[in-house]
Amino acid sequence: MGQRGRPSLRTEEFRRDAVELVRSSGRPIAQIADELGVNRETLRSWVRRAEKDQALAQAGVGRDELEELARLRRENAELKIEREILRKAAQYFAREMGR
Description:
Structural class: mainly alpha
Order of helices and strands: HHHH
Number of domains: 2
Number of helices: 4
Largest sheet: none
CATH topology of the largest domain: Arc Repressor Mutant, subunit A
Shape: elongated
CATH architecture of the largest domain: Orthogonal Bundle
């Protein structure tokens, strides 16, 4: 799946290191973000994502599977809408033919 928003200026390695620093230092995210020159909410989102990825890995589910599941759910919702439209169209034409 594609990345949302604009591409990050930070490498994946930088993000991993920043998250590890937050986890190991015991210092507030705001302080570490200021030291690294990163927006506080950006660093907070990296930490949250890393925690989510870790929980998923422990559960045996990868990010790819989650993205695939989300894609399939969207596709399923679209198909339900299309099916409903076709059902209504069939009803309409059946009424028209019966006149």
